[in-house]
Design a protein that fits this description.
Elements (H helix, E strand, L loop, with lengths): L4 E2 L2 E2 L1 E4 L4 H13 L4 E4 L6 H17 L14
Parallel strand pairs: 3-4
Antiparallel strand pairs: 1-2
Length: about 80
């Protein structure tokens, strides 16, 4: 999160929040730190889904031997 720019790509951040104020604060912090966007998984009942998403990252790093400085990005077409 310290430097969320990989090459010339700004990475995305992900949150799961219930109320508007924490979402606004978290989104603002993520974009202030340099993330291109902060995507909401849409509520606290999606915490488990976001945790599985994070575990996918851990699997890529630890089990497949990739370096830790990888990031996930949503690409729209």
């Amino acid at each position: 999160m310290f430097n969320p720019v990989y090459g010339n790509q700004e990475i995305d951040m992900f949150v799961s929040v219930v109320s508007a104020q924490p979402k606004q604060t978290t989104t603002q912090l993520a974009t202030d730190l340099g993330s291109e966007s902060c995507n909401d998984f849409a509520g606290s009942y999606k915490f488990n889904l976001q945790e599985q998403f994070a575990l996918s990252w851990v699997n890529l790093v630890m089990m497949l031997g990739l370096v830790r400085n990888i990031a996930l990005k949503i690409v729209y077409q």
